[in-house]
Structure prediction request, 304 residues.
Amino acid sequence: MSSTYAKVIVNPTAGAGRTGREWPRIKALFKGSGLRFEHDLTEAPGHAIELATAAARNGYDMVISVGGDGTINEVVNGLYKSGGIGEATLGIISTGTGGDYVRTVGIPRGCEEACRKLLQPRRVTVDLGMVEYASNGRTVERLFVNFAGMGFDAEIVRRTTQQFKALGGLPSYLLGLLATLVSYRNRDVSITIDGEVVDERVCTVIMNNGRYGGGGMLTAPDARVDDGYFDVLIIGDLSKPDLLWSLPRIYRGTHLTHPKVKLRKAREIEVRSAQPLHLQADGELLGQIPARFRVLLAILNVVV
Prediction:
């Protein structure tokens, strides 16, 4: 199949339904540019994994994700599931709420500019993260492109998606954040970082492949998607007032000077706790720890 022929996977519900409203315009841009493509719309969570798996196995050289960070996550997991992730190139049109991954890799947020990138593609090869975790009494694996975390940030994801998702976008996130601030309690965890065991009470632990998370928070200012390492952010036993005061600093990337904030470079991490602790990857709630993380080196080709 020609390398100019693409499979476009569209998540119409991404960005609180904005993607579905924008898709006719994006489709017209593709057609007007001369891009040869076929497209599928996702119908439920997990459907993009199935569509991307089929696209890679059917020989499409480019698979384009139209949606948010969660859509990118599913498409990449589908490419990996196909067994041919290194043979397909990922294109991204970011129409979701957060847009954290495209900020790191340098893909324009505007649809017109992002579409032009696909026509004269410059490809970069990037790392991915793999997390192994507990779900419904069994151990499963999941790739992530940008970041994965547990504790406070995963609890925000849980509340946002389970309690306030209908509000969409920023309102749902802010309500999830406020609800988590009121009820969340820090946890005692054991973290093994490249063989070194660290036991402490934490607010959150985040494995960063990219620099941004949570809709523009500069969680790991120096992270790179091609250096072979996670930037492991450990936010320690902060009090509620201190955490509230520190949140704006995360958006500016100045939180690393806080005495209870640590950042470590690592390739393999394991997190355990005697207390329940939720886990998220790329803003999608997965399950609970214990969880093991590892870097998959130079495995994905992305158009930038």
